[in-house]
Amino acid sequence: MSIVLVLFLLPAVLYAAVWRSSSGGAQPGRAGALLALALVLHAITFFLPAQSGTFHYGFAKLLSATVWIGLLLAWIESSRMSVGGLFGLLAPLAMVVVLLPYVFPGTAFRLDAQPPLFVPHLVAGTLAYGVMFLAVLQALLMVAARRRLDPRAPAQSGGMIAATLGRGSALPPLLVLERMLFRVIAVGFVLLLITTVTGIVFSEEVFGQPLRFDHKTVFSLVATVAVGLLLAGHWLWGWRGRIAVRLTLGGFALLLLSYVGSRFVLEVVLRRV
After folding, report:
1. pTM of the model
2. Which residues touch 97 (CB under 8 Å, ≥6 apart)?
3. Which of 70, 119, 75, 120 is nearest to 94 (CA)?
4. Which residue in 46, 59, 174, 187 is a FRET match for 147, CA 20 to 30 A apart?
5. CA distance 144 to 150
6. How far apart are the first and last CA of the chain?
7. How do the pLDDT tens digits run along the chain, 273 residues long?
8. Alpha carbon distance 224, 171 (integer Å)
9. Integer angstrom CA distances of residue 121 from 76, 96, 156, 197, 235
10. 107: which DSSP letter?
11. Phi, psi of 170, deg, nearest 5
């Protein structure tokens, strides 16, 4: 077994232990300590395979980084509030996505041959995915909290997942969850704007035009507009509840289609990396 495969397997094993601890009702501190170690080892995989002056990036690494950022932010939030069954839901997902870049390493980029804004654009985009992923999870926590207040209510969007999130521990008050959701969405919107601006300049440098209206660009712009519309609607007209959940889920789905979807088709379906 190669050392690279071992480095990918170690965080997957730790995530399995986190899942078992969360599902078995173990002390939150134990699950948190296991998760902290898993996050550190998971972060190391972002730099694999290691080649001097080269960085591999593709749909698998983006999915892995998205879940990693979501878990990191959830771990930080868990020190201040109960997050219900969040770790139990995310840990099995992390077990899978942490291994994906080993199978699908993506495209190898020579960093010294890239335009100046390539790395900032990549980092801002990845952070935006991760923050919006956490927003989706918090939106589902809101659904779980609402279902607990009215157990006879019909299942909302993401009802089964929301039930898993809210199972086994007390959820924060609904207003607290809502305040946290819009705070996270505001951060995600800023990161999306940074991604859009750096992407425009990056496109100008590489292709000689500020915007290339391919499906990736269109989905990204529509997602950014949807998130911005949600924030404006919340501040100006008091949008909340179901419309907040639906726009959050819709915006993140568009983000996934914009880059992860296009890279998946290129790398896996068409075998063009």
Report:
1. 0.71
2. 60, 63, 64, 66, 67
3. 70
4. 187
5. 10
6. 26
7. 688 889 999 999 999 998 887 665 555 567 778 889 999 999 999 888 777 777 787 778 888 888 888 888 778 877 776 655 667 778 888 999 999 999 888 778 777 776 776 777 777 888 888 888 888 887 887 887 777 766 555 544 445 555 555 554 555 567 777 877 888 899 889 988 888 887 777 665 555 555 666 667 777 888 888 899 999 998 888 888 888 888 888 888 888 777 665 555 555 555 555
8. 29
9. 25, 26, 35, 9, 28
10. E
11. -75, 140
Compute how many other C-beta atoms are within 10 angstroms of the C-beta atom of residue 261: 17
Residue 204 structure tokens: 């100008």
- Is the Cβ–Cβ distance between 109 and 171 less than 8 Å? no
What are the phi and psi torsion angles at 183 (to 5°)? -65, -45
The domain locations on the chain are 3-269
How far is the C-alpha of 56 from the C-alpha of 104, rounded, in Å? 10
- State how far the Cα of 178 lies from the Cα of 176, in Å rounded to an integer: 5
The token pair at 207 is 């292709």
Q: Cβ neighbours of residue 28 under 8 Å, at least 6 residues apart?
A: 78
